[in-house]
Amino acid sequence: MSGKYEKYRKNMFLALKTAYMYRENFLISVVMRFIVVLLTLYLWKAVYAGRDALGDYSFLEMILYLFLANFIYGLGNFDGFSYELVDSILQGKLNSALLRPVSYSRMAFFECVGQKLVYAPIDFLAYVIPLGAAAVYGGWRLRMGPAAWCMLLLTSAGGVLTGFLISFLMGMIAFYVENPRVLIFIKGELFALLSGSLIPLDLFPQGVRAFIEMLPVKYIGYYQSSILLGHVRWEECVYDLALLAGWILLLTLLVRRLWRLALTKYIANGG
């Protein structure tokens, strides 16, 4: 890694070590993940009572879908960072961060990645391992070639970056609104639904689904699970990647432009 990014890499691992220091939070997270898994199984078992399929999903396929979608959503959900940015702006903590000879957005991204590295293994144990066990004992077989794996990795990385950029934009609302926490909470609930981590987008009405699939949020859970289950039409992959890249470019430009404008206002007001 070049010297330019060395300081960000060190900051990422510092965030990783710091997160591990709070063992109580870590243990609570482990317990809560497995409780969510059990609740998901019991809830959908009740939904499937008396029926073989829901839409195009058998019970096993639904569980496979939800486990992977929640794993990806956990990686791409940065609501915690939005709240931290709000507190930094409102309480004046942002001042010291701006004095550092580094890009604030890059530093924040690598810190968030460091924190995700703490909880990603927990999510892997809670979601992906049961997913594999369900697949094996349910007779389901993974049929993904190299192209599918590439799409899975590319869209997962793009989804994580997209989630961070949107959370950055939400946190910047604090430059203009005194208490944007309610907006961040509403955004989090909407994203959980629109990302497909609660229910597959295939089950939405056609018009609603067509609208949601134009948004970047589908790349934070739904799209990767669709790849896993073979629901993605490969002739549309180029369009899907172009759409994701377009959203990342647009969000990046928005973050840079609005951040500069917001800092002008922040400094002018004595922040």
Description of the molecule:
This protein is mostly helical. The chain has one domain. Helices cover 74% and strands 1% of the residues. It has helices at residues 3-21, 23-47, 59-76, 79-90, 94-98, 104-138, 146-171, 181-194, 206-212, 222-228, 237-268; strands spanning 53-54, 57-58. The protein has a two-stranded antiparallel ribbon with strand order 1-2. Helix 4 (79-90) packs parallel to helix 7 (146-171) and helix 7 packs antiparallel against helix 10. The radius of gyration is 20 Å and the shape is globular. It starts with a helix and ends with a helix. The mean pLDDT is 82.
Key features of this structure:
mainly alpha, two-stranded antiparallel sheet
Brief summary of the model shown:
This protein has a two-stranded antiparallel sheet with strand order 1-2.
- Neighbour order of strands in the largest sheet: 1-2
- Whole-number tally of structural domains: 1
Distance between the termini: 35 Å
Please provide the ordered H/E string of secondary-structure elements. HHEEHHHHHHHHH
Write down the oligomeric state. single chain
**Outline type:** globular
